[in-house]
Design goal:
The complex is a heterodimer.
Chain A (H helix, E strand, L loop, with lengths): L1 E10 L5 E10 L4 E5 L6 H9 L4 E10 L2 E2 L5 H6 L2 E4 L6 E5 H15 L7 H14 L4 H5 L1 E2 L5 H15 L3 E5 L7 H14 L5 E6 L3 H5 L4 E6 L2 E6 L2 H9 L2 H7 L1
Parallel strand pairs in A: 3-10, 3-11, 6-9, 9-10
Antiparallel strand pairs in A: 1-2, 1-4, 4-5, 7-8, 11-12
Chain B lengths: L4 H12 L10 H14 L15 H4 L24 E6 L2 E2 L12 E5 L15 H5 L7 H9 L4 E5 L7 E6 L6 E10 L4 E8 L4 E10 L4 E8 L6 E10 L4 E9 L3 E10 L5 E11 L3 E10 L5 E11 L3 E10 L7 E10 L5 E10 L5 E9 L3 H9 L4 H17 L5 H19 L1
Parallel strand pairs in B: 1-5, 4-6, 5-7, 6-8, 7-9, 8-10, 9-11, 10-12, 11-13, 12-14, 13-15, 14-16, 15-17, 16-18, 17-19
Antiparallel strand pairs in B: 1-2, 3-4
Helix pairs in contact in B: 2-5, 6-7, 7-8
Classes of the chains: A alpha/beta, B alpha/beta.
Protein name (chain A): Fe-S cluster assembly ATPase SufC
Organism (chain A): Alloyangia mangrovi
InterPro entries (chain A): AAA+_ATPase (IPR003593), ABC_transporter-like_ATP-bd (IPR003439), ABC_transporter-like_CS (IPR017871), FeS-cluster_ATPase_SufC (IPR010230), P-loop_NTPase (IPR027417)
């Protein structure tokens, strides 16, 4: 599904190398987790894959189902099936959540040459999906993420994911700022979307999210590289011993 | 006091080219207004109040030529609404295109035809005169003196249908001066809609007297002929527990100066003055607002949003004056511009002058580019760059558009904005 080979990235505005050769393959239908200390390059990886400005790819490649995504505009990557659940979802005053969702769904459909969703059908689907994420009608009416609590913002991300039905979902520290109940709600939302060949890349600091979203593969990232790959037990090892041992081992 | 020579010459030349209408009952008011213009002189480039907007084309003897924009079979705004339509073509009333001047809850007549004994006699030019202090507005006095026509509307009840003044521009050299008077009597409520480019050069005054407990709603869409010029004034006086809401959308026009001069004279009244404009290229748009609080527990809101690109200029001069004794005043003023490139400019002069000690007044003014984080967020969800920019632009002006009470009119306004954005994108 997602194949990253020797990806090297620096900041556009300063001479700072962030990713120093990342290799990663996520197979269709699998859940991969990336763990790592602050500043290891996890969030940069998610931004570069989704096309945010401010980064320069200095080497390597990234493909989604064989298509080179690094050359695409962010909206083209989205239409190709890539989705980033933001660590800090952006507030957009003045744009209603429903308008936003409907514009996004139909823009992607149009880009893929599919028919747009009618307003009746859209309403029906969005209500159903919102309900399972405990998102009420009021939240759907409000401007995008404005005045939402941390938990509401993250649930809103998952709602967008559910509506857009991407093939490859990247969750950037979706657990940050969530209490236990909110985390469970979000994890249930993600788990409901597992299967059907959909892949996930879950970026997190902590093992606790992985108790709820069980990964197939766990990667440890440090200093701009993947330094270790293993099964779910690797996450437990980090939880018990921290990253220091692993980083030392690699050095 | 003698006027500076340049100003004297310009004023004399302009006045010599105009003739005072016979006017009947309005004649004394017109003569008094002419005397005011002669004393003040027409605005000049050195006047502080015209620091950001050049008045020369507005005061010139001849109206600078302005091509008529061909819009094809595009339906004019508000035309699908059930309303009383009154049409002026280049400032001349069109009986043929207008509805019969009759509507339940109000009386409506033309200024040019109003009989000798008239209720408007006490109002015509009165609010304009009050609005001349502390800042002079000579173009409004010129209008009172020389207006060729206009509507006199007396509202006695809650009027269901809006009155729609549709202005059409058909001649490249037309120079129109219209003066409307609206008197909303106790408990009355009316909505006035205005649309269209009016003339190559348009000088318009509306005086609105809102009595105790009455309501006045005004929504204006200034026509998008690229070369037209307009200087407009709306003077308002509010009684106890009355409401006055005005919103203007301006797209294009080479020069627009919209002044709103509102006085809160009765307790517990509320005035909202809002505007959104979208300009491109040699577009110059000036919103000048002066709100006077002279009563207790009144609310005023000024909300202005400007979207500018390709060297367009936006101006905002907004003032809140709180007079001694106007306690519990709640004043709010915001003026913001969205600059879509580095060539455009926004000039703002927000002012507060407060002589009471128990008031809450806030003001703010910002200029900025489109929010890159919001843009990326939308694009990451699959929305194209162009559509994302449009959404953020509509969102930017939303706070002003939301001042329109009727949601169906809000929708119509947003459609006009979307159409403008669409045309710009080509």
């Amino acid at each position: 599904m997602l194949e990253i080979k020797n990806l090297q990235v620096k900041l556009e505005e300063e001479d700072k190398q962030i990713l120093k050769g990342v290799d990663l393959t996520v197979e269709a239908g699998k859940v991969h987790a990336i763990m790592g200390p602050n500043g290891s390059g996890k969030s940069t990886l998610s931004y570069v894959l989704s096309g945010k400005d401010g980064y320069e790819v200095t080497g390597g490649e990234a493909t989604l189902e064989g298509q080179d995504i690094l050359e695409m505009e962010p909206e083209e990557r989205a239409a190709a099936g890539l989705f980033l659940a933001f660590q800090y979802p952006v507030e957009i005053p003045g744009v209603g959540n429903m308008t936003f969702l409907r514009t996004a769904v139909n823009a992607q459909r149009k880009a893929r040459g599919e028919e747009e969703m009618s307003s009746t059908e859209f309403l029906k689907v969005v209500r159903e999906k919102a309900k399972s994420l405990k998102i009420d009608a009021e939240m759907l009416k409000r401007p995008v993420n404005v005045g939402f609590s941390g938990g509401e913002k993250k649930r809103n991300e998952i709602l967008q994911m559910a509506m857009l039905e991407p093939k490859m979902c990247i969750l950037d520290e979706t657990d940050s700022g969530l209490d236990v109940d909110a985390m469970k709600l979000v994890a249930d939302g993600v788990n409901a979307l597992r299967g059907e060949g959909r892949s996930f890349l879950v970026i997190t600091h902590y093992q606790r999210l992985l108790d709820h979203i069980k990964p197939d593969v766990v990667h440890i990232m440090a200093n701009g590289r993947i330094i270790k790959t293993g099964g779910p037990e690797l996450a437990l090892e980090v939880e018990n011993n921290g990253y220091a041992d692993l980083i030392e081992e690699e050095a | 006091m003698a006027l500076p020579q340049v100003k004297q010459t310009a004023t004399d030349a302009r006045l010599a080219a105009l003739s005072l209408p016979e006017g009947g009952w309005s004649r004394p008011a017109r003569e008094a207004a002419l005397a005011r213009v002669q004393a003040m002189g027409l605005p000049g480039g050195r006047d502080e109040y015209w620091k950001y907007t050049r008045p020369d084309t507005l005061t010139a003897v001849e109206a600078p030529s302005a091509a008529v924009l061909e819009v094809g079979d595009e339906a004019p705004v508000f035309s699908a609404r059930d309303r009383l339509k009154v049409v002026f073509v280049d400032g001349v009333f069109s009986a043929e295109e207008s509805d019969e001047l009759a509507l339940e809850g109000l009386t409506i007549e033309r200024l040019a035809e109003a009989s000798d004994i008239h209720w408007a006699k006490d109002l015509y030019g009165t609010l304009e005169t009050n609005g001349q202090t502390p800042v002079e507005r000579p173009l409004a006095a010129l209008n009172t003196a020389f207006a060729t026509d206009g509507l006199l509307i007396r509202v006695t009840g809650k009027v269901e249908k809006p009155v729609h003044l549709l202005y059409r521009h058909e001649s490249d050299s037309s120079d129109a001066i219209l003066h409307h008077v609206v008197k909303v009597e106790e408990g009355g409520d009316v909505t006035l809609l205005e649309s269209g480019p009016a003339a190559a050069r348009f000088n318009k005054v509306i005086e609105v007297d809102v009595a105790d407990g009455a309501g006045f709603h005004h929504v204006r869409v200034q026509g998008r002929d690229h070369e037209r010029r307009a200087a407009t004034h709306i003077f308002g006086r509010l009684g106890t527990e009355s409401t006055f809401k005005t919103f203007t959308l301006t797209v294009n026009g080479v020069l627009t100066r919209n002044e709103a001069v509102i006085e809160l004279t009765g307790d517990d009244a509320a005035v909202h003055v809002a505007g959104a404009c979208m300009g491109d290229g040699d577009f110059h748009h000036d919103d000048t607002v002066f709100i006077t609080h002279d009563a207790v527990n009144c609310e005023s809101r000024q909300i202005f949003k400007k979207v500018l690109r390709n060297g367009a200029t936006g101006v905002f001069q907004g003032k809140i004056l709180v007079k001694p004794g106007a306690q519990k005043t709640d004043g709010y003023q915001i003026s913001q511009s969205l600059l879509l490139d580095e060539d455009s400019q926004f000039l703002a002069k927000p002012e507060l002058e407060i002589y009471a000690d128990d008031v809450a007044c806030s003001h703010g003014s910002t200029s900025g580019a489109i929010d890159e984080d919001g843009l990326f967020y939308l694009r990451a969800r699959g929305v194209s760059r162009g559509t994302a920019e449009d959404l953020l632009t509509i969102a930017f002006i939303a706070e002003a558009v939301q001042e329109v009470e009727d949601e169906s009119i809000q929708t119509e306004i947003n459609e006009l904005v979307a159409a403008w954005l669409g045309r710009r994108r080509g």
